[in-house]
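Moderator note: this is an archived Q&A kept for reference. The question asked for a predicted structure of one protein chain; the sequence and the answer are reproduced below.
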Amino acid sequence: MELGRRGLLKLASGALATTGLIACGAPSFAGAKAKAIAFDAFPIFDPRPVFSLAEELYPGRGAELGNAWRTRQFEYAWLRTLEGQYADFWTVTQDALTFATNKLGIAPNAEMSARLMNAYLELKPWPDVVPTLKLLKDSGIRLGFLSNFTERMLTSCIAASALDGMFEQILSTDRVKAFKPDLRAYQMGVESFALPREDIVFAAFAGWDAAGAKAFGYPTFWVNRLNAPPEELSVVPDGSGKSLRELMRFALS
C-alpha cells in the first residue's frame, strides 16, 4: 500500500511533535525587522523548466511524469529521514525519477535521464529575485539558503543565475543528514547565522515547509508562487504572498 503525500506529512508532523517542535505555545510573529533571511531553494530558483523539459522529451506524458517524479522526490526524502536511511537530495531525485518512469511504463535512455537531472543544476531565478535580493542586502539583512538541495545543486544554480556573492550561508541538509521538516535541518540556520531564531525569517516555497519552519520557531513567510492552498497541519506561517517583494515588506516591517 502506498503511503501517499498526506500520510507522509502526518508522519512527519508526528515526528516533529515527539521532538517538541509542534506545541500549542509556539511563538507568533506579526513581522519584525529581520536580521537574516534563510531561503528554501525554490523561492529563488524557478523549477518549472524541469517539468517543461519532461514534456519536451515525452510529449503528452510530461505533466504525468512530472507529478509522479515530484511526489516521490519529497516522499523519499521524508521516508529516509524518518527511517534514518539518509541519501542526499540528488540521489533521492534520481531514485524518484527512476520510480516515476517505471510507474508510467516509460523507459528513458541514459541521455534523457541525464538531461532531466541536469536541469536541476541550471535553474534560473524568478523575475523578481535579483532586484529584491539587492534591496534586502543593501538594507543590511544577511541572506542564506537553508535547503534540501545538495551544496553542489545550490552552488551550480547560483552560478547559473549570476547570484555569486549574494548569499552568506549555503546550508544543505547534507550537513545534518536529515531533510526538512526535521528539527536538525532548521537548527542549521540558528547555528550558522549565530542569531536567535526569532531574528531569522524563513522563506518557504512549499506549505509543508512553511509549517515546519513556523513550528520550529522561525518568523516564517510563505512565498506561495503557485497559489497553492495551505496545508492542514495546525500551523500557519506569519505571512504569505506570491513574490519576494511581499517578503521584503514582511522582513522590514
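Archived answer notes: Strands lie at 36-39, 142-147, 169-172, 200-204, 220-223, 239-241.
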